């Protein structure tokens, strides 16, 4: 393989001037607009007034077998909300633990229309059995991530991410809309249920080796933006949540080894000659993170991030929720800025050159997701 046309060092040198300029501009802007920070924050984050948590308020969540979904289900349960936790496998460790906690577990495969309708019927029957109960929110959390360049991924892997992340969210939302429109009388006043959509920082700035995943999340963001405007006239809020990075705790990479083997098996002889040992080194680097993901799947737990749970409380209970809540590490702002600059200044920079750099050779513990 030939040398990369642009090294990381040359990229850094070329991008230094605009990056420094942007940093200075941000610092000056922050100083000038500091007096207006509280006002801007209140407008962006929505109303601080909230509905009080109540067992009469039901919340449906998807993807609760592990990770964020499991953590949100346990947190909502601790608030006193009635939780319907959708799980792919009712026998999974996460599902069994939720049952032990007293959470209502519902089998829910977002890619299967019959499974989705079955979950709707379970919730609908519960609402009929308890006249006080109403559906306050649907949280679309279920997601699949396959880490690897687009040229490596199989059609099945691409379709899986599209069907779970994008089409699955649409499928579930469409099925539950009638129950959400029925509204709720719990709390200080009437209101309708809301749709909460978990997106990703990859929807804000796509990253190499996450091209398919980023496409599904960007599509999800665009759909949620339009859905919010469509549903506003009917009184159904649509809220997006960007939760940030907790890959090693979410279990989302638990199946990475299987995905890597599938990519390897599908490669043609031309692929193998062209890429060389780069895919192998790429997947070896991710083996450590994916092993932590398997542990998170086997022993799901509440995510140790109080600010994250507070943000979801705002999305679920605010009388006038913001259109989008973002909770990300500060380094993501730097990632997004660099990714916006680099493609335009160095078109030759692709994940192949970046991932062959010292970042991967030294096995640095950098988490992109």
UniProtKB/TrEMBL annotation:
Q: Gene3D superfamilies from the xrefs?
A: NAD(P)-binding Rossmann-like Domain (3.40.50.720)
SUPFAM superfamilies documented for this protein: NAD(P)-binding Rossmann-fold domains
Q: What is this protein called?
A: D-beta-hydroxybutyrate dehydrogenase, mitochondrial
Q: Which family does it belong to?
A: Belongs to the short-chain dehydrogenases/reductases (SDR) family.
| GO terms for MF | oxidoreductase activity
UniProt entry keywords in alphabetical sequence: Oxidoreductase
- Pfam families, from UniProt? adh_short
Family annotation (PANTHER family): D-BETA-HYDROXYBUTYRATE DEHYDROGENASE, MITOCHONDRIAL, SHORT-CHAIN DEHYDROGENASE/REDUCTASE FAMILY 9C
Biological process annotations from GO: steroid metabolic process
């Amino acid at each position: 393989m030939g040398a990369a046309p642009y090294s990381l060092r040359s990229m850094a040198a070329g991008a230094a001037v605009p990056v420094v300029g942007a940093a200075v501009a941000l610092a000056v802007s922050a100083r000038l607009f500091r007096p207006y920070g509280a006002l801007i924050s209140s407008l962006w984050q929505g109303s601080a007034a909230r509905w009080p948590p109540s067992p009469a308020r039901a919340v449906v969540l998807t993807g609760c077998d592990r990770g964020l979904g499991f953590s949100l289900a346990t947190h909502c349960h601790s608030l006193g909300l009635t939780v319907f936790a959708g799980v792919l496998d009712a026998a999974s460790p996460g599902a069994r633990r939720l049952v032990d906690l007293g959470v209502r577990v519902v089998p829910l495969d977002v890619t299967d229309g019959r499974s989705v309708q079955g979950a709707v019927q379970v919730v609908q029957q519960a609402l009929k059995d308890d006249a006080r109960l109403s559906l306050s929110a649907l949280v679309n959390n279920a997601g699949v991530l396959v880490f690897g360049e687009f040229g490596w991924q199989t059609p099945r892997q691409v379709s899986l991410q599209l069907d779970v992340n994008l089409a699955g969210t649409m499928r579930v939302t469409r099925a539950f809309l009638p129950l959400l429109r029925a509204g709720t009388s719990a709390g200080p006043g009437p209101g309708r249920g809301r749709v909460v959509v978990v997106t990703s920082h990859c929807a804000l700035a796509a990253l190499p080796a996450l091209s398919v995943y980023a496409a599904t999340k960007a599509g999800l963001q665009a759909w949620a933006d339009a859905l919010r405007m469509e549903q506003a006239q009917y009184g159904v809020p649509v809220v997006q949540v960007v939760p940030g990075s907790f890959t090693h705790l979410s279990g989302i990479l638990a199946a990475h080894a299987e995905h890597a083997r599938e990519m390897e098996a599908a490669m043609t002889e031309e692929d193998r000659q062209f890429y060389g040992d780069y895919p192998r080194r790429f997947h070896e680097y991710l083996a450590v993170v994916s092993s932590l993901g398997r542990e998170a799947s086997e022993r799901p737990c509440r995510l140790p991030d109080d600010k994250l749970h507070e943000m979801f409380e705002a999305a679920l209970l605010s009388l006038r929720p913001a259109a989008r809540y973002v909770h990300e590490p500060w380094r993501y702002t730097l990632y997004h800025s660099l990714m916006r600059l680099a493609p335009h200044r160095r078109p030759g920079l692709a994940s192949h050159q970046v991932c062959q750099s010292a970042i991967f050779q030294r096995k640095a513990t950098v988490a992109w997701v």
